[in-house]
Specification:
The chain is of the alpha+beta class and 214 residues long. Helices cover 46% and strands 28% of the residues. The chain has five helices and seven strands. Strand 3 and strand 4 form a beta hairpin. Helix 2 packs across helix 4. The radius of gyration is 30 Å and the shape is rod-shaped.
Length: 214
Amino acid sequence: MKKPISIMLFTALFLSLAACSESESNREIREIEPQISQMKSICELATMECYYHNVAKYFEEDASGVLWWKKDRKFWVEYSGIVTIGIDTSLVTMEIDGDTVSITIPPARVFRCKVDENTLSKDSFIIAQNSAEVEAEHQTEAFRDAQAKMREAAENDTALLANAQLRAQKLLEDYVRNIGEIIGKTYTVKWIHMDDSTESDKNNTESVNEIENL
């Protein structure tokens, strides 16, 4: 009777080890599947910084003087600015169904817009002849207007925004395919593009806050 009992114990142990091995293997495969946290990090890496060079014009009619001796305040500022464009990672989602990875991605948007103060010098300011005196407060107002116009130009640059989104999509697709190669799967990436209106209210609020904090 001892021999059959030994065989039964060995068989039970073998099945137990096999089950553990299979469970461990499945767990490792699940851990190596595409992860949304990694996708969000990739979108952050895809963020683009674009440099703008422009001239801001300031004009204030009858800024100083009295009666017929009034002067306008008029000057120009030559400046360079940095516009940061990318994908809002909080809106990126993912679902895996077999070999299909569905990724929801919002349109690229303008994150930040700022005049590069390192490009400014006394030569950057061109004051019109017979202009009223230009004070620091007028320069600050000119910078506000410059940043607002830079943001507007970037937000209306559909080619630039499309390029930023395609850049993020390319990096995400490469990531998914590389994961597939590691675990022996050929993933199909399905893109779900969010409508531009989804972020419109959020963008407008952030734009106002950014300008008010200057």
